[in-house]
Design a protein that fits this description.
With 384 residues, this protein is mainly β. Helix content is 2%, strand content 51%. It is built from 1 helix and 31 strands. The longest helix is centred in the last third of the chain and has 8 residues. The relative contact order is 0.13.
Length: 384
C-alpha cells in the first residue's frame, strides 16, 4: 500500500486539447517544490473507454501544477509501485521550472476488472500524487448485492437503555447509495448532533450499485472531509481531506482483504484495526488509535444480515464514523452473512436476540427489526 504522500489536486476536464505549457519566472514564490493547482481531487475516476494518445489531440483530463525546478511525472501500478501503469500516458513526462498544463491519456480497459494507478509528479525530491481509477468494461457492482433483501432499506436505527435514548441514526439514499447519515447522541445533557453528507459516483446496475469514489463530509469537521477510492467493490484507499491546498498534507489510510474479499486490516489516520473471520462472519476486531485500544469479539446467530446497510457495524463493532459509513455501504469487502448472537468488549456487550418488526407506543407493528441486549433495545426501521 501507499506510503504517505503530500498531495494537492488536479483540475478535471472531461475532454481537453493536448497541451503543455511552461512559464518560468525567476521571481516566483513557490509554496513547495511541486504542487498541483486548481481544484484538488485526491481520487480521480476515468471511464473504461480510451481517451486517445498524445498524437490524437484529446486527453482524458489535464493536470495543472507549479514546479520550482525540473520535474518528472509518471503513473505506477497502485499495488506494485515498482511497475509502470502502462495504460496511462502523458503529453510530456518531464519539463522545467514554472506553471504547467499536462494532458493525461488512458488506454481502453476491456476487462471485467477495474484498475488503479498512482500518478506521481516529482521535483527536487518532493513528490505529490493522487490515485487514478479506471472503470471496467461493465460496472462492478456492490459485492454484497445478493445478500440484500429488497424490502429492507434501513431508514433509522435507535438505541434505548430502558426508557433513556442513547443514540439514533437516520439515513437517506440517492441512486441506491447512502446519501446522508444523521447521528444524535445523548449523555444526560444536551444531545449532540452530527450530519455526514455522502456523495459518490453511484451507478445503478442490474446486480447492485457500482461505486468508484466516495466523499464524506461531517457537519462538525474542521477539515473538508474524507475521500475514498473504491476498486472492484472494495475500498482501495482513503485520504482525510476531499481536496487539499498546495501547502497542506493529505494523510493516507489503507484497507487490506483476504482471498475471500473479507476485510483484514485498516491502517492510517491514527487508527489501526485487525479483523478476524470464520468462513462467513467477522469474529474479532483488535484496534488501537486516538489514545485507546481494545478488542471486540462476537459469536453469530442464524439471523441473516440482509438489510440494505451492513448492521454488524452498528451492533458492537466500533470504527471511526467515516469507516463505519463505508461498512454500512457494503464497501469494506464481503459482509458477515449473519448478525451477532453475542458481543464482548464493545459498547454493546452481551447476548443479542432478534424479533422481526418494531412495535410503537400504540402497539402498532412497523417494518423493521428489534434487537435486545441486556437493558438495551435497538430498533432498525425499514422503509414502508
Amino acid at each position: 500500500m501507499n506510503k504517505l504522500f503530500k498531495m494537492a489536486g488536479a483540475m478535471a476536464l472531461t475532454a481537453v486539447a493536448v497541451t503543455i505549457s511552461s512559464c518560468s519566472d525567476d521571481d516566483k514564490d513557490y509554496l513547495a517544490d511541486i504542487y498541483f493547482t486548481g481544484s484538488a481531487p485526491a481520487v480521480r475516476v476515468v471511464e473504461a473507454a480510451a481517451s486517445g494518445t498524445p498524437a490524437s489531440g484529446i486527453a482524458a483530463f489535464s493536470l495543472t501544477f507549479d514546479a520550482a525546478g525540473s520535474w518528472t511525472i509518471q503513473a505506477v501500478d497502485y499495488f506494485n509501485q515498482e511497475q509502470t501503469a502502462d495504460w496511462v500516458s502523458f503529453y510530456a513526462p518531464a519539463g522545467g521550472e514554472g506553471s504547467q498544463i499536462v494532458g493525461v491519456y488512458t488506454a481502453a480497459n476491456t476487462s471485467s476488472q477495474e484498475r488503479a494507478a498512482l500518478v506521481k509528479a516529482t521535483c527536487n525530491g518532493t513528490v505529490t500524487s493522487f490515485t487514478l481509477i479506471q472503470q471496467a468494461a461493465a460496472p462492478v457492482p456492490n459485492p454484497n448485492a445478493d445478500a440484500i433483501a429488497e424490502k429492507k432499506q434501513v431508514t433509522e436505527i435507535i438505541c434505548m437503555n430502558g426508557e433513556n435514548l442513547l443514540w439514533s441514526y437516520d439515513f437517506t439514499y440517492d441512486k441506491g447509495a447512502l446519501a446522508t447519515m444523521n447521528v444524535v447522541t445523548y449523555n444526560g445533557e444536551e444531545p449532540t448532533h452530527k450530519t455526514y453528507t455522502i456523495t459518490s459516483d453511484a451507478r445503478s446496475t442490474a446486480s447492485g450499485v457500482a461505486i468508484n469514489k466516495v466523499n464524506i463530509k461531517s457537519s462538525t469537521a474542521t477539515m473538508n472531509g474524507q475521500t475514498f477510492g473504491v476498486l472492484n467493490g472494495k475500498v482501495l484507499t482513503g485520504y482525510d481531506v476531499i481536496s487539499v491546498q498546495p501547502d497542506m498534507t493529505g494523510r493516507l489510510i489503507s484497507f487490506d482483504y483476504n482471498n475471500a474479499a473479507q476485510l483484514t486490516a485498516v491502517d492510517g489516520m491514527e487508527f489501526n484495526g485487525k479483523y478476524t473471520w470464520n468462513a462467513t462472519d467477522l469474529t474479532a476486531m483488535d484496534f488501537s488509535g486516538n489514545g485507546a485500544s481494545g478488542k471486540v469479539s462476537a459469536s453469530y446467530s442464524q439471523q441473516p444480515n440482509d438489510a440494505s446497510l451492513d448492521l454488524v457495524w452498528f451492533l458492537g463493532y466500533g470504527m471511526n464514523p467515516e469507516n463505519q459509513i463505508l461498512g454500512a455501504m457494503n464497501l469494506l469487502g464481503k459482509r458477515s452473512a449473519n448478525l451477532p448472537a453475542s458481543v464482548s468488549g464493545g459498547d454493546l456487550s452481551g447476548q443479542l436476540t432478534y424479533t422481526d418488526g418494531i412495535t410503537d407506543i400504540n402497539n402498532k407493528t412497523h417494518a423493521g427489526l428489534t434487537v435486545k441486549c441486556g437493558s438495551r433495545t435497538i430498533t432498525v426501521a425499514y422503509a414502508e
